[in-house]
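Before the break, one more example. Copy the sequence into your notebook; we will annotate it together after we see the structure.
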Amino acid sequence: MAKVALITGGMGGIGTQICKALADAGFTVVTTYSKPGKEIEWLASAKETGYTFHAYQCDVADYDACVALAASITAEIGPVDVLVNNAGITRDATFRKLDKVNWDAVIKTNLDSIFNVTKQFVDGMSERGWGRVINISSINGQKGQIGQTNYSAAKAGMHGFTMALAQEVARKGVTVNTISPGYIATEMVMAVPEDIRNKIIAGIPVSRLGKPEEIAALVAYLSSDLAGFMTGANLAINGGQHMC
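Here is what the structure looks like once it is written out:
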């Protein structure tokens, strides 16, 4: 029976490629979405390219919604073996202009969600003696970014969570790791004005944006049996833009 992988917020550029990479690796793939409507077209498009995914609506910032999500997935698909915490939002503003509403929105969706979702599945992984938790952070959680005190704080917090939980479950066959992508050629980044995008690329030593497939390939590796000796790590994949 195929292992089950859950990718939160899996319908974006990076999320879609993660879903495909894990399906290619033999997992039954489940994802979440926040607003109804998008999933119909996304699932149909995936099916046209040979992928059958399962999608559940869930606000990952809402703990009770995550409890209900876990119950539905477990009953209808099976226990989750791989969890990729990928859902996230931005609400950028310099700290002087940042209000409490947009601070809370980012912290709840990008950081509280890690607790809300992981809490539902990690005990089951531990009891079965195998599991993978992969948290998708950001280069800006490592180096910070003007206008992103909320986002940078949340993304940095994700790796603190990773290191602590990794120590708690290591002896139970469960690994917990963070991936920190740099600038990736998603729709959001490609929508940035070309002159600004070129300035970004000029600051990347490999002289290009990353590809969603490259992030997905790293997720697939961390989800495999071969990655059993790696836990508590923060894997930077940013073209050399930030080295530490």
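Strands lie at 4-7, 28-33, 54-57, 82-85, 131-136, 174-181, 234-237. The mean pLDDT is 97. Try to locate both features in your own notes.
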